[in-house]
Write a structure and sequence with these properties.
five-stranded antiparallel β-sheet, 337 residues, disordered N terminus, alpha+beta, three-stranded antiparallel β-sheet, globular, 9 helices
């Protein structure tokens, strides 16, 4: 493989692939790329190289010198922003209480809406946040009688780099009542002889219906306002009717154990805040014009299997997840806003 094993070859990284093949990619897709995508790839290409300038460290003993070049600080760069992720974890951890159970809630929109969202990322990603927060607040308020709180992070990819927009939310299971007069404790399921009581947030099916209704209404409202770019309104209306007739996936994960640390969830979410849709450790090799990498098996076994994409297709899929300029991909709602 192209990974450094014996020390004779440089380690294979996402950044090295982007730097080596960006010129070929831009030449092939120049007329189809936005200025923001091209400039992002350009910045990443210069990251930690001489054009970025930097400092020279000199050893006082042997007088040897080592240049250390500046980072590009682009949030999509696979080499940058580790400190910002750590800061986000530390700041968000200040909101956590030791006596509270925390749930991870994942909101996913159907794949049939993917092309519509790709063509209108800023308004429809924003709507994804608002719809998830609205559904949570309504469900928690109605079922638990308490004020909801959440910190949310947007993910836009699946294991094979396809466009798969979804929201990960960290949600406390207890909080102040709606009138603020008392503290509402976390609810628990009924214990049985075979299964102990488990922390319980809300009915995920009802939460999914509220999320679906809020998102579809929001899309229709944006269409009427002329905000979205749409080629075929009849086709879009047919797709909206189809997705409105099915259940949407909302996954609620309770704390695995009574001693589970909610900061572990924060660290998991932080891994995907910057750096793009795939980490270096998932890369296998670049061979015969294809990038080979590990991805989760589609048979729901959780196994990691090798998959591959042509090099330029790999970069094209990677650029699908460059967010609109200035778009905030982590937000707080309710009591944490």
């Amino acid at each position: 493989t192209a990974r450094a094993g014996s020390g004779q070859q440089p380690a294979l990284t996402v950044a090295s692939i982007l730097k080596q093949y960006t010129e070929s990619f831009v030449e092939r897709y120049h007329g189809h790329l936005s200025c923001h995508v091209e400039s992002t790839l350009l910045r990443i290409g210069f990251c930690r190289t001489a054009p970025m300038k930097g400092r020279v460290y000199r050893c006082p003993s042997c007088d040897s010198k080592v240049p250390v070049y500046n980072s590009c600080t682009d949030r999509h760069c696979p080499q940058c922003m580790g400190a910002r992720r750590a800061d986000w974890v530390n700041q968000t951890a200040q909101l956590l209480r030791a006596d509270t159970a925390y749930f991870q809630v994942v909101f996913t929109i159907p794949d049939k809406l993917s092309s519509l969202v790709l063509g209108n990322r800023r308004p429809l990603y924003r709507l994804l946040f608002r719809s998830a927060a609205s559904a949570l607040q309504r469900s928690i308020g109605k079922e638990c009688g308490m004020q909801a709180a959440a910190t949310m992070v947007l993910h836009t990819w699946n294991q094979r780099l396809g466009h798969h927009p979804h929201i990960h939310a960290l949600v406390p299971g207890s909080g102040p009542s709606l009138d603020g007069s008392q503290w509402v404790p976390c609810r628990y399921t009924q214990a049985t002889r075979k299964k102990p009581a488990q922390p319980f947030l809300v009915d995920n099916k009802e939460l999914g219906r509220r999320f679906r209704g809020s998102y579809v209404r929001g899309v229709r409202r944006l269409i009427r306002a002329g905000v979205l770019e749409i080629d075929d309104l009849v086709q879009i209306n047919a797709v909206l009717a189809e997705v409105q007739a099915c259940d949407w996936v909302v996954y609620i994960q309770p704390p695995p154990t009574e001693t589970s640390d909610p900061e572990d969830v924060l660290k998991y979410l932080a891994r995907y805040m910057t750096g793009g849709p795939i980490s270096d450790r998932r890369l296998i090799e670049v061979k015969d014009g294809r990038v080979h990498f590990w991805a989760r098996s589609s048979d729901k076994s959780g196994r990691q299997v090798p998959v591959s994409l042509p090099i330029l297709e790999f970069i094209r899929c990677w650029t699908l997840h460059i967010l609109p300029k200035g778009f905030t991909k982590t937000r707080r709602y309710g009591g944490w806003s």
